[in-house]
Amino acid sequence: MNDAAHIKPLTGLRFFAAMWVVLYHYWPNLAVGFSPALVEKGYLGVELFFTLSGFILCHVYLESFGEGRFRYGPFLWNRLARVYPLHLATLLGVMALGLAATAAGFNIDAHILNWDSLPANLLLLQAWGAAPQAAFNHPSWSISAEWFAYLTFPAFAWVAWKLRHRAWLGAGLALGFMAVLYPLYTAVTGESLTEATIHWGALRIVPCFALGCAMHGLWRAGAVKNLRTGAVGAAFMGAGALMAAVSGAPDLLAVAGFGGLILCLAGMAEHGSRFASGQGFVYLGEISYSVYMVCVPWKLLFVNAATKLLNTADDRLPWYIWMLFIVSVVPLAAASYHLIERPARARMKLLMDSWAKRRSVAPAT
Fold first, then answer.
1. Separation of alpha carbons 291 and 17, rounded Å
2. Cα(first)–Cα(last) distance of the chain, in Å?
3. Local structure of residue 276 (DSSP, 8 states)
4. Given its phi and psi angles, is residue 12 left (phi above 0), alpha (psi -120 to 50 degrees) or beta?
5. Whole-prediction pTM value?
């Protein structure tokens, strides 16, 4: 993303979404007898990611789409460069960990090495109902859902462009779509769409992505009039989303709050706020994808090693070991960002530039 497209508070927000998911996965390994409501709703961090994705992709690509400059092939390649290398690395890493753990006598979930699910995971189809089990690096289901949104982005962009001068209508339609889809899904399946993974994960991203696109439309239309409006709105929407999450309210209210929070943070940045725009916040946001992708492989390795060393009867850790467990995921993610994610992304983009250059100089036939 270029500097003009870099809304820094939204980058930092990604880190908090990632750590919310991490807390959700790691809390069961803490030796306490309770689970806070906020932790139990940590799966909603994925909804925050999905909504951010819709906003940012519209911010980067919508104008070129509307003006006919959008190129679908390079767009998909850039998005693949963003997500696939680390996905492949963590998939292979979990595979290696699973094989080594099995050989060493560690206890692992029997589904982790479900080889029938490997083709879907390699093709990013595991959230489309193509994987029989939640295998390998399970959080990657959301990357499969993102891939679905990338493939269908022209449809989202077409609607967003058509509604660019009727932004409030776009927001109303997005919220109305959520209000219908979430209870309808529950009525049909008996489950919450916000907890769907490998079976309906591709559908789970759709309302969030659409909401992000709609919030971008409101932002472009100047819905956040000044810095004070943005600050008050961000505080209200953020608090409202958290209250909805912990109070037992329908998840769609929290998701709607995420949309409002994103809109207000972007508006604050537009009006000159430096809130959550420091280098530390931005860097943490940049490594947030690595945080998300390495958290479960690290859990497999750390918890199994800790239980062996401590000779405990289960996988619940003392608080001081657990604190080391959760804090250590950040430097581990930073390492994966600098050693895998960032260089692999750059390499894939260089390949695309090289191909484009060859095509431009190829002689006419």
1. 10
2. 36
3. T
4. alpha
5. 0.94
Write down the domain spans for the chain.
21-66+74-104+111-352
Percent of the chain scoring above 70 in pLDDT: 96
Written as six digits, the tokens of 29 are 């390994």
What's the rounded Cα separation, in Å, for the pair 152 and 148?
A: 6
3-state secondary structure of 107: coil
DSSP code per residue over 47-111: HHHHHHHHHHHHHHHHHHHHTT---HHHHHHHHHHHHHHHHHHHHHHHHHHHHHHHHHT----TT
Tokens, residue 233: 């709105």
How many C-beta atoms surround the C-beta of residue 176 within 10 A?
Answer: 10
364 pLDDT more than 80: no
Nearest CA-CA partner of 128 in 147, 150, 156: 147
- Roughly what angle, to the nearest 10 degrees, separates helices 251-270 and 201-220? 40
| Spatial contact of 234 and 264, defined as CB atoms under 8 Å apart | yes
pLDDT tens-digit readout, 293-320: 999 999 988 998 898 898 888 889 999 9
**Paired strand residues for 30:** 317
- For the chain, what's the residue count? 365
| Predicted confidence (pLDDT) at residue 3 exceeds the cutoff of 60 | no
